[in-house]
Amino acid sequence: MAAAGFRRGTATGGTISTNGLYTYHEFTTVGAGSFVLSGGQLQIEVMVVAGGGAGGHGYAVSDAHFWQTGSGGGGAGGVVVAPRTIYTGTYNLTVGGGGTAGTSVVPGGDSWFESTTSCLAKGGGGGGITNAVGGNGGSSGGGAGGNNGSGSGQAGWGPGTQTQNSIGVNYGGTGYGFAGATGFTSNLSALNPAGGGGGGAGGAGGAPSSNGVGGNAGVGISVWGGLYTVSYGGNGGGAYPNYSGGSNGSNWSYVGSGGNGGGADGVGWTGNNGNDGIVVVRYLT
Length: 285
Known about the structure:
nine-stranded antiparallel beta sheet, single chain
């Protein structure tokens, strides 16, 4: 029975569907949108997923192993899940796009609901490129392998340090996002500087191995009973002698996931783009 004075509003906006007990409004187009409630109030839950960071660009200027560096995997877009009671009005929102892979550290775009100071999910950090750390973001990008071009050794580059967990949520909800991993250190006995895995919404990125295999992507999360699986990190890029990325390669296709880092084998490879985010509002039908 409804409480005295409660009048249930009518909602519009996004792509509307029902599943089980709930009605869902999905916003998937990158850019601005709005959720409109008329005629009362409504108890909702919001899931906001930011765009994933782009994978880094591998580095190579010759076939010499110490001239080749695997890049870091892109960090997953941050995820915020929050309950809210809303009232008649228009609630603006933004869906962040995935980062576009290139030769720099490229983050994903932020997503938010209502305002940038309330329910905000930060875009994933870009994967690190040679001589650069991974980027900050909802989940941070993995670092590139160490490379100073001489074979005398250099420490692997670190991941970004900011994540959704450290940013916090000002909306009464929960934020999800973890750090990427440090790239492999090159030295005279192991010239295999692969990149670290990007952080995911459900776990940190994995460290690269000593045989040139990039670090595994951080895992994503399942939301609302597994209806949505979102925000895996990107795998770190590989280097000599295996040149392969981490083993979570299929998972970066999910919404909000970071792009895989580019490896190097005589040439530096471009990483993958990050995936776009999403905003979903649900309420009891």
